Amino acid sequence: MTQLTAAQLAALIDHTLLKPEATTQDIDRLCAEALEHKFCTVCVHGSRVARAYALVEETPVKVAAVVGFPHGAMDADAKRYETEVAVDHGAEEIDVVVNIGRLKEGDHRAVFRELRDVVEAADERAVKVILETSLLTREEILHGCKLSVDAGARFVKTSTGFGSAGATVENVRLMREAVGPTFGVKASGGIRDLATALAMVEAGATRLGCSAGVQILKSLPPPAPVR
Q1: Residues that are catalytic
Q2: Mind listing the pLDDT tens digit for each residue in 129-149?
Q3: Which domains does the chain have, with CATH numbers?
């Protein structure tokens, strides 16, 4: 099993709060935790980007905004506009939900065009494409990965956390094989303990989306004493 220090693990975590009932105070707490533990990003809804950015500005913690969340079924122009607004408010990464229905019916041209539009609107910021793997076949996951790479995204991501299931080791491994060794793979959905987090990294994840990052870090065994 992969062994990571607290700092190494924290650097992989997108500290996430996407519950619809989240308040400003909850966002403030999320950002404070991210700063304390040095998480990679805070991942929030578009309406919370400006607040989060104000709290983490000029620190190593970045703001990631979700787009087309959680179903991905809105018009492509809406996703592009949502991306532009998030960027204007300070988002440094974009997590966009693919149009799952279009992907499943094999309309790859429409999926590619939509993802390319979001990548262009992100203006060189990292785009992570959420495939919602629990709703896809193996072949559909492979197609989604190829379209994401071709469109210029930087990550493929397993799940919204609001679907029928979250990340699995098998799907993370499949996605890693599909995109190659240097492209990003983000595991998200259902990562609530250290063993699951480390299993996802072992399978090829280079980013972890979770709301339980603080608890996961606290469950790491203490470092061995130096002799």
Answers
A1: 95, 157, 186
A2: 999 999 999 999 999 999 999
A3: 6-218 (3.20.20.70)
